[in-house]
Design brief:
single chain; alpha/beta; eight-stranded mixed β-sheet; 8 strands
Length: 192
């Protein structure tokens, strides 16, 4: 079970901030875009004919960001909340699924990505979420997560050592870590 009631956590943010980055609990559009940029940098330059599943897609903002950067691919958004499903469907015009990554079957994709959706999960749920996305990907899983040793009743922080241990457990062939872009944030690539 997440550290917070996910439905209330996001619904209240949408009610207050609307369909904006703050509506999915990001600090700002700039910080959201920086995280998206880090994910795109870890993916191949040419994404044409590839599929990317966005686990915890929110409003589908990663897809619209990538299109502005002239990166085209088949997009599959996945979110557990009906509000996100409705908004992402309208925003992207792509296939959006309602699913809980930790408990439901998820589709295969060339790559899986996740930007921030694991931040409110318990540690074992985060590990399961990463495992399921990595296993459902053909080539890898790229995600960002809160980084460090901070303790929080709401948010989930992982150290580099924690991430390396998860990679070992999953038999990841190549791990790429980038943590020099925002305080207390890391983007991780687990590649097959």
């Amino acid at each position: 079970m997440p550290r917070v009631d996910n439905k209330k956590f996001y619904t209240s943010a949408i009610d207050i901030h609307g369909i904006t980055p703050k509506g999915v609990n990001w600090n700002s559009k700039d910080s959201q875009n920086i995280r998206f940029k880090m994910i795109l940098q870890m993916l191949p330059q040419n994404l044409e004919n590839l599929s990317i599943a966005d686990a915890g897609c929110g409003f589908g903002d990663f897809y619209t960001y990538a299109l502005k950067k002239k990166r085209e691919f088949t997009y599959i958004g996945i979110d557990s909340l009906v509000d996100m499903y409705s908004i992402a469907s309208e925003n992207t015009g792509c296939e959006i699924l309602i699913a809980d990554i930790c408990t439901d079957e998820i589709p295969q994709a060339t790559y899986y990505i996740c930007s921030g959706a694991m931040n409110t999960l318990q540690r074992f749920e985060t590990h399961l979420f990463i495992r399921k996305c990595f296993e459902a990907s053909q080539k890898g899983f790229v995600f960002n997560i809160l980084h460090g040793t901070k303790k929080s009743p709401t948010y989930n922080y992982f150290t580099t050592k924690d991430i390396q241990e998860i990679a070992e457990d999953l038999g990841v062939k190549k791990v790429v870590l980038k943590d020099d872009y925002l305080d207390a944030d890391i983007t991780v690539g687990f590649f097959k």
